[in-house]
What we know:
Elements: H1 2-24, H2 31-55, H3 62-75, H4 80-87, H5 92-113, H6 116-127, H7 129-137, H8 146-162, H9 167-179, H10 183-196, H11 201-212, H12 217-232, H13 238-250, H14 254-268, H15 274-289, E1 299-305, E2 316-323, E3 332-337, E4 343-347, E5 364-372, E6 384-387, E7 391-392, E8 397-401, E9 403-404
Parallel strand pairs: 1-8
Antiparallel strand pairs: 1-4, 2-3, 2-5, 5-6, 5-7, 6-9
Helix pairs in contact: 1-5, 2-3, 6-8, 8-9, 9-10, 9-11, 10-11, 11-12, 12-13, 13-14, 14-15
Protein name: C-type cytochrome biogenesis protein CcmI
Organism: Vibrio marinisediminis
Subcellular location: Cell envelope
Amino acid sequence: MTLFWISSIVLIALSGVLVALPFIKKKENNDEALRDELNKALYKDRLSELEEETEEGLVADQQELIDDLKQSLLDDIPTEKQVSEHTQLNPWVVIIPSMLLTIALSYGLYAKFGAAEDVQQWQQVTSNLPALSKKLMSPEGASLSDDEMQDLTLALRTRLHYEPSDATGWLLLGRIALANRDIETAIGAMDKAYNLKPDDPDIMLGYAQSLMMSQEEVDQDTARATLGKLVQRNYMDVRVFSLLAFDAYERKDFAAAVRYWSIMQQMIGPQDERYQMLARSIENAQKQMGVTAADGKSVSVTINLAPQVKASSGAALIVSVHRADGSPMPVAAARYPLGSFPRTVVLDDGNSMMQGQKLSQLEEYVVRVRIDSDGNVATSQGDWYGESQATEMGQAVEVIVNTKY
């Protein structure tokens, strides 16, 4: 409110100057002086006319007419009393009432028709931005009421108006818009954040999430490309694979959806309550493909690295299941981000590679695990690998990666 009072005082002072200006710059040659100058000019013109008329013989008594003209001039000159009465008017008699009237009208009309309460509430909400942001980011963030969400949005917009280069602020505004299903605002805010920090993983994820909600195919393609960059960077976040799985399922790419949901299962582990929900999603996608895991048969593989194994963060983990006779052609295989170890992955018929041969049909098998360092599955030079013993279907397998090609 300080700025409001300063601005209003400056405007009222300016109005006062405009009111007083005519009195301050009042000229000394008032109306009476101007009238006197005009009478003199008329007198001289009339004298010239009388001389011409006398020369032409039109005037019989020139002097009498001149005397009458002089008398008329004297009668038109104001008296000293009239001049003093006119000049005795004090300019402050006009200036002070005018200023008081201006102040009364200005603040009175603003109090009646202005938005003083709204401005005050807006400034209060803006000052409360840190507290609202902290509450939103806390575990209890979902407890924010609708009014608090609106206040937080208003405060964020105000801050971003003055600090448009705040990428974190745009990200937070985009997340709020996504929570409110305001897709247009979410995409706009996330786009600004992405342009400011295109390499920030959290911003990339939020940007992709907002574009996934768009109905435009171009936006959805951009979202897939952005999520793909995160996967290539080995950004292990369940939300990335959840978005990819949802998108794949919507596009009826059920095999990809199963693959992404399986990765999510491995990331959260069986103890997480979401594990069974993902299992149902996988089962549903497999039904859509006409694939079922016979009697629920699957291969659970626990993987660990030997101490001497060194792998770059950009490497990939390839797990393949082969017939127990040592056939090089895998019956089932899956590719995962490297992640951390030890870890457990699960393969089932959704990972089958051979037509007419399902993983669940095997009675015995061996599991091979390879760390692919160059991204090309056809080359193995310099890669680390490990292999299990022949195992019967239904038994857990443990593989230690300890050998280098």
